[in-house]
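Quick one, tokens below. Sequence please?
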């Protein structure tokens, strides 16, 4: 029996009535989509006497499998809580874990009403939204999104990327030494007890990495002699900037190639080499313990997740960017349907995009199967006195941000600093320290103004003063916040 889906179309009705009707007609008349989609709900198709309350339409959202949001410039009518039906429907689709597809009309976000601009930002922080200009463009984007949905859910039978035979590859392209190292590490971690042949072909068969005697994409990515020969997007790119923005000069950058195990290890070492570390004493062992300003476990988890769960059909690269105040890990792809950035903060099941890649990573303890990776990251950062990591969808990339200090955007906003004081914090993040005379010169202010600004920043707990009087006095960022400030 064929799989059949039902769609709910949401938008501000008066503004986008033509687009709504066009989408419904297109889906139900397309030779491919109409095989799998049997119903497209539009508000205007219900008789006027049956239009009772918002609850009716939220119920319609719940009853359908796919939410399609078409966002324009208007926000629409608001209820007593200041929410429009369009936003209520989007929130309900999110809450009930529906597949959500969002299409935004136009590229000029400044033309949107503030509430609609905020809704667009909310949507794009959770999923990949597509933009369109006219109805033909909207239909093209809807078609591409629905085909992708049908493929991901098995309605259209296509072989997953990691299970597909790697074009042009043979067993001779597998690095036997890499397989030997993998087996030794997996056994040392207690996550593998291999019986039988340890020959490369036998090991690959054991992990379902051979198809008709040929290596799959996952096999080449994990154990290939030269994975980049088969995949242009397998490189992992690392960048280091002295400041808080992507701006030249770049302090250092490095593309890493090799197997997924190798690029993960190289990327972790790159990050750890750019952040502060502390060496303890040998009080409890022969080796002095080393700790980093951002926990190594959190850095590793973020990078492993990006490599394991990325969309390998995308031409994009995984990027790791070290700024003076944070580490960002950019992953081409998005969260699985039903999983939002907010839900990552709570226990959830594991939903690997590439299960044949994830399994060997689990065996060597690079990854877990329990879905605890993001909650472990949060706990590690909080235990280190740092803010929780940020999880965001930014266009076609899913981005994890690990903060190097407690001066996040939210904390800074709560302190109500003026523009000059905010810029002084950015100056300190880049340059490390500032004197009163430097402050005067950098921000073109009198000595009295500089002294008042610096005094306020000290009172806020943002900076500390070294020295008492004279030319030797300078100011630096505070090493951490008080308990009260962290809770703001």
């Amino acid at each position: 029996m064929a799989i059949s889906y039902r769609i709910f179309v949401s938008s501000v009705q008066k503004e986008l009535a033509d687009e709504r009707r066009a989408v419904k007609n297109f889906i139900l008349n397309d030779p491919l989509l109409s095989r799998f989609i049997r119903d497209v709900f539009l508000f205007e198709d219900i008789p006027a006497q049956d239009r009772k309350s918002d609850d009716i339409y939220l119920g319609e959202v719940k009853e359908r499998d796919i939410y399609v949001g078409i966002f324009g410039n208007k926000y629409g009518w608001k209820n007593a809580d200041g929410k429009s039906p369009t936003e209520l429907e989007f929130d309900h689709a999110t809450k009930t874990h529906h597949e959500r597809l969002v299409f935004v009309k136009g590229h000029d976000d400044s033309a949107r009403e503030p509430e609609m601009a905020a809704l667009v930002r909310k949507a794009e922080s959770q999923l990949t939204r597509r933009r369109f200009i006219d109805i033909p463009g909207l239909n093209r984007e809807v078609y591409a999104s629905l085909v992708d949905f049908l493929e991901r859910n098995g309605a259209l039978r296509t072989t997953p990327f990691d299970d597909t035979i790697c074009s042009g590859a043979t067993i001779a392209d597998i690095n036997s030494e890499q397989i030997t190292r993998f087996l030794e590490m997996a056994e040392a971690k207690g996550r593998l007890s291999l019986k039988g042949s340890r020959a490369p072909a036998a090991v690959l068969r054991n992990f379902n990495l051979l198809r008709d005697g040929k290596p799959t994409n996952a096999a080449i990515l994990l154990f290939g002699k030269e994975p980049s020969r088969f995949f242009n997007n397998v490189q992992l790119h690392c960048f280091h900037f002295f400041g808080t923005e992507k701006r030249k000069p770049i302090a250092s950058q490095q593309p890493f190639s090799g197997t997924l195990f190798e690029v993960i290890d190289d990327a972790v070492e790159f990050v750890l080499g750019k952040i502060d570390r502390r060496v303890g004493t040998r009080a409890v062992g022969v080796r002095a313990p080393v700790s980093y300003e951002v926990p190594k476990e959190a850095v590793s988890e973020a990078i492993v997740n990006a490599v394991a769960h990325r969309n390998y059909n995308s031409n994009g690269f995984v990027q790791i960017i070290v700024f003076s105040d944070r580490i960002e890990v950019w992953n081409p792809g998005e969260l699985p349907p039903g999983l939002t950035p907010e839900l990552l903060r709570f226990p959830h099941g594991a939903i690997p995009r590439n299960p044949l890649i994830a399994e060997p990573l689990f065996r060597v303890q690079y990854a877990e199967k329990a879905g605890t990776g993001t909650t472990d990251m949060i706990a590690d950062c909080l235990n280190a006195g740092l803010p929780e990591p940020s999880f965001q969808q930014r266009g076609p990339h899913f981005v994890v941000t690990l903060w190097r200090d407690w001066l996040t955007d939210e904390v800074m906003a709560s302190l109500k600093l003026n523009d000059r004081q905010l810029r002084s914090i950015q100056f300190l993040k880049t340059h490390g320290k500032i004197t009163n005379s430097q402050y005067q010169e950098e921000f073109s202010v009198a000595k009295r103004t500089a002294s008042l600004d610096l005094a306020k920043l000290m009172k806020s707990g943002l900076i500390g003063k070294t020295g008492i009087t004279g030319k030797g006095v300078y100011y630096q960022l505070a090493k951490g916040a008080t308990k009260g400030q962290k809770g703001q």
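The domain at 236-353+361-403 is CATH 3.30.565.60 (Heat Shock Protein 90). Residues 135-152 form the longest helix (18 residues).
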